[in-house]
Amino acid sequence: MQTITHPLSAPHSPVSFQLTSHHYGAPGGRKAYIQASLHADEVPAMLVAHKLRSRLNELDRQGKVKGEIILVPAANPIGLGQVINERPFGRYDLSTGINFNRSYPHYAGQLKERLQGRLGADADANVALIREELRALTAAWQPHSDTATLKKALLAMAIDADIVLDLHCDLEAALHIYAGTPLRQAIEPLAALIQSHATLYTTAAGGEPFDEACSRLWWDLAEHFGPSIPIPPACVAATVELRGEVSVNYESARADAEAILRYLSLQGIVEMDSFTLPAPISAPTPLEGTERIDAPHAGMLVYLRELGEKLSVGDAVADIIDPFTGETTTLRSGVDGVLFTRLSHRYVIRGMNVAKVAGAVPFRSGNLLSL
Ligand SMILES: [Zn+2]
């Protein structure tokens, strides 16, 4: 195992940030990249990475790491330093207001030009050439801020990986996963192992999140070059939401880490004792079928249903009570599906997202993620 420190700050800065990555195995074979807490204070993800680090150290000592694994146990040191009035504030870069998990470069456009006339009928050769170009494009990125330097450092480690797992958490949530539609089959074993309550697919979520920067270019290129040039979805990237921000306990962190290692073992990247794949607890659904239930007015928020519950159209999800008049509005599900996120505070203003329900019938388009 090798630990690498990546400096993020330039000279003359009053503060200096650095990123840490742990590298297991050797380059050349199958590669997995796992990062935790791109939104900084999403502690369940960092705790899973903590458990992964000790398990990987053990597997490495036993010679059971067969491919290459990069673990970034705290992917956002800049965000970890952002605290406002005693509350961590890790979702957005305070210097720009930009979400740390948005606005990653989508290299498909540049690759379409650079690869013209250079790809052939050999899928493996195409994958190797595309990865070579991706490494070059990432290396050529000239960041002009500490946050851009961080994004470049993370992407440079992930861009040529076979598996990319971006570990996050929501406010209050049942475990759920976001991934690209062409990866649906590849993600199924992970969803079963980690017992995902909602696995949400789309070909493009909007906003350029980190997982899509690694994965979406593959199906964009396949579509562009057509069937005579085989280009598989060679990077299986997923955003894994490890429940809510206070779902911090050793038991689930250990189980999640073990599920991830088992998934990597199915990919031939680590060697594990044999196990039986558990049955999935949910069927995958299109992200376009997820309903956002937003507050129509301000008030006290009282939930009527628990996370992970299956809802039918018209089921009451929460009440919002005007504290001055007592008038109450009941919010109802507009779809049949699974309640998978809730807010972590209980007073809302108009327009706040109160809950999300994963439905199976697509009805949304455009930007599908929260800001
Ligand atoms: Zn997050």
Helix content: 25-40%
**Overall tally of domains:** 2
Q: Please state the second-level CATH architecture of the largest domain.
A: 3-Layer(aba) Sandwich
Q: Cofactors and ligands present?
A: zinc ion
Name the shape in a single word.
Answer: globular
Q: State the strand order across the main sheet.
A: 1-2-4-3-7-11-9-10-12
Sheet having the most strands: 9 strands, mixed
CATH hierarchy, class of the largest domain: Alpha Beta
Q: Can you tell me the CATH topology of the largest domain?
A: Aminopeptidase
Mean of residue pLDDT values:
97
Number of β-strand runs:
20
The secondary-structure element order is EEEHEHEEHHHEEEHEHEHEEEEEEEEE
Q: Based on helices, strands and strand pairing, what is the structural class?
A: alpha+beta
Number of helices: 8
Summarize the structure in words.
It is globular, with a radius of gyration of 21 Å. With 371 residues, the chain is α+β, with helices and mostly antiparallel strands. It starts with a strand and ends in a 12-residue tail after the last strand. It is built from 8 helices and 20 strands. Strand 5 and strand 6 form a beta hairpin. It folds into 2 domains: 282 residues, 3-Layer(aba) Sandwich (Aminopeptidase), CATH 3.40.630; 74 residues, OB fold (Dihydrolipoamide Acetyltransferase, E2P), CATH 2.40.50. The protein is 28% helix and 26% strand. It has a 9-stranded mixed sheet with strand order 1-2-4-3-7-11-9-10-12, sandwiched between helices. The site of zinc ion has 4 residues, from loops.
